[in-house]
UniProtKB/TrEMBL annotation:
It comes from Veillonella hominis. This is ABC transporter ATP-binding protein. It holds the Pfam family ABC_membrane. PANTHER family: ATP-BINDING CASSETTE SUB-FAMILY B MEMBER 10, MITOCHONDRIAL, ATP-DEPENDENT PERMEASE MDL1, MITOCHONDRIAL. Residues 333-565 form the ABC transporter domain. PROSITE patterns: ABC_TM1F (PS50929), ABC_TRANSPORTER_1 (PS00211), ABC_TRANSPORTER_2 (PS50893). Residues 19-300 form the ABC transmembrane type-1 domain. It is found in: Cell membrane.
Length: 575
């Protein structure tokens, strides 16, 4: 996508309203171009016994009524349509953010996108609203006004008067380029600041519990200082640009008063003409006062446009709108090697196994041994190498992402809750024919034990991120969401960790009776997978053992070591 394509999306929808606003603005500027001549003519009536002066006063009143009405309409339409642009661009960015590969967020975090959707879109709005208003004023008052001025006095005289303006415009352009570079850099640090702010507020409880306020505050100070420094660089250039544009008009008017004053004294110009010419010069140089501001607004807008375009060019996932679902089949994993883009070592090495359809499979192992990575590949959050994972005969790498994700229900370790009702959190958007009812899903996740009243209350909305729930309650609502989807494959990523033994047993008893679903369950707690049809034991990215609980205990391998370590802990806790 090119910048023009982005803006065309706005102009196609709102272009005509924007055009009305722009036309009104031009009409106002044209009307203002008559003002200096009117003033001059009105003053010349004074030397003719004020004949016609009253008529000029009526003209003035009429002109300013028309200008005021046009101004109201132009501001409403132009600035109003620009607000629509802001709205539209945020929609485009949000839709892109939902399609960008998840690896982008692993590398960059969410701060940059948040800054794009707030700060950068606002800079573009200001550039296209206020910036365009200044440009129109410059074109009509300064350019057209200059042409009229040249006709009224001679070209050489006009150039003499306007020379300082040309010199200052060139300087402003040179400084403007520098400003854009500085602005881009300042906006990047703003992203870091947003990101840090987000981390800070998410981890507020942990920060307080560990008394880390001063350390966090020092880290924040560093980022804040950098942001301040970069913005000061921008402010310095802004500070030079603005006075430069203010000086130019005064020099021009001084030159004009000097030259035209002499002509008036020598009788080569009437007082009315003298006033007309000086009023024109005021009109011409007036918008130039805003020229420095314009350069700054435009450069900020361009820097934001660069950043937005960079983001819009990122590769995306191809998501179609299919409701297709993979059939329930055995999953075959064949010599699967995988490493993350930003790391050298293999996260998974030569992983080979078969997962029979309808089975309950446990995945256990040391931390960082590759269990969650396998889930990320299965659900397409990371790109799976070709010919490594098959659903029946179907290579996962050849399955469309939508179909794959329709076929898999995923319950992550970290609960994700929206501030809406529990039922809406369970349903979570799209409704496919295979879905369970909310009641069945809630039953399976044992929600009625303590959340039945809240679940039945259609008006009760959860606090942000479910802050008004316990860790276990959040986990069970997340599980209910996975059960509600009723997909052929269910992935449970260590989501029993916050549950008590009774709840775990209740939920597992239900899951072990399910035969029309393949369930893969990662758990650090081995009692969760004890009754699994098969347990895969991971170590350093490899499956080092597989079998039932009994077989693995008999193996005397890593599983037994882990099991005895946990049993030891349990005895210790009981004692
Ligand atoms: N986004 C990532 N980028 C780079 N490396 C990663 C990323 N995610 C995980 N890893 C690395 O891949 C390896 C496997 O991680 P994974 O999360 O799959 O382990 P795990 O067995 O699920 O661990 P745990 O039980 O602690 O959750 C680890 O060495 C980890 O550091």
């Amino acid at each position: 996508m090119k910048p023009i394509d982005l803006f065309m999306q706005f102009f196609r929808r709102e272009g005509w309203i924007y055009a009305i606003g722009l036309t009104m603005l031009m009409a106002i500027d044209v009307a203002f171009l008559f003002v200096p001549q009117f003033i001059g003519n009105a003053i010349d009536t004074l030397s003719n016994n004020k004949e016609g002066l009253v008529t000029y006063i009526y003209y003035f009143i009429l002109l300013f009524i028309i200008i005021t009405i046009l101004k109201v309409i132009s501001r409403r339409t132009l600035l109003g349509s620009i607000r629509r642009m802001e709205y539209l661009f945020r929609e485009i960015l949000c839709s892109k953010a939902l399609q960008v590969k998840t690896t982008y967020y692993e590398a960059n975090g969410p701060g940059k996108v948040m800054a794009l959707m707030t700060n950068d879109v606002t800079s573009l709005r200001v550039a296209l609203g206020l910036g365009v208003m200044i440009v129109v004023d410059i074109i009509f008052y300064s350019v057209v006004g200059s042409i009229i001025l040249i006709q009224k006095i001679n070209t050489v005289l006009a150039f003499k008067i306007m020379t300082p303006v040309f010199l200052i415009i060139v300087t402003i352009f040179v400084l403007g380029r520098k400003l854009r570079i500085k602005q881009r850099s300042a906006q990047a640090t703003y992203s870091d600041l947003t990101e840090f702010g987000q981390e800070l507020f998410q981890g507020m409880d942990v920060i307080r519990a560990f008394n880390r306020e001063s350390i966090i505050s020092n880290s924040f100070e560093k980022i804040n200082k950098l942001n301040y420094k970069k913005n000061m660089d921008v402010a310095l250039l802004d500070a030079i640009l603005t006075p430069l544009t203010r000086i130019a008009p005064f020099i021009c008017i001084s030159i004009s008063i000097f030259i035209c004053g002499h002509l008036a004294v020598e009788g080569k110009m009437t007082i009315g003409e003298f006033v007309t010419i000086n009023s024109f010069i005021m009109l011409i140089v007036g918008p130039l006062i805003g020229f420095g501001g314009l350069i700054s607004i435009v450069q900020k807008g361009l820097a934001s446009l660069d950043r937005i375009m960079d983001f819009l060019h990122l590769p995306t996932e191809t998501i179609d709108d299919t409701d297709e679902v993979l059939p329930l089949e055995d999953i075959h994993i064949r010599y699967l090697d995988f490493n993350y883009e930003n790391s050298k070592g293999h996260a998974l090495s030569q992983v080979t196994t078969t997962i029979p359809k309808g089975s309950f499979i446990g995945l256990v192992g040391k931390p960082g041994s590759g269990k969650s990575t396998l889930f990320k590949l299965l659900i397409g959050l990371q790109e799976c190498p070709e010919q490594s994972i098959y659903f029946g005969n179907q290579d996962l790498a050849a399955v469309s992402l939508s179909k794959l994700r329709n076929s898999i229900a995923y319950v992550p370790t970290q609960s994700y809750l929206l501030s809406t009702t529990i039922a809406d959190n369970i349903k979570f958007g799209k409704n496919l024919p295979m879905h369970e009812t909310v009641e069945v899903a809630a039953q399976k996740a044992d929600l009625y034990r303590d959340l039945g009243d809240l679940l039945n209350d259609d008006l009760h909305e959860l606090a942000e991120e479910g802050h008004d729930l316990s860790g276990g309650q959040k986990q069970r609502i997340n599980m209910a969401r996975g059960f509600y989807k009723n997909a052929p494959y269910l992935l449970l990523d260590d989501c029993f960790s916050a549950l008590d033994a009774v709840t775990v047993t209740t939920i597992l008893n239900t899951l072990h009776n399910v035969k029309e679903q393949t369930i893969l369950c990662i758990s650090q707690r081995l009692e969760v997978v004890e009754k699994a049809d098969k347990i895969l034991v991971f170590d350093e990215g490899r499956i080092v053992e597989e079998g039932t609980h009994k077989e693995l205990l008999a193996n005397n391998g890593l599983y037994r070591t882990l099991y005895e370590a946990q049993k030891g802990e349990a005895h210790y806790e009981e004692a």
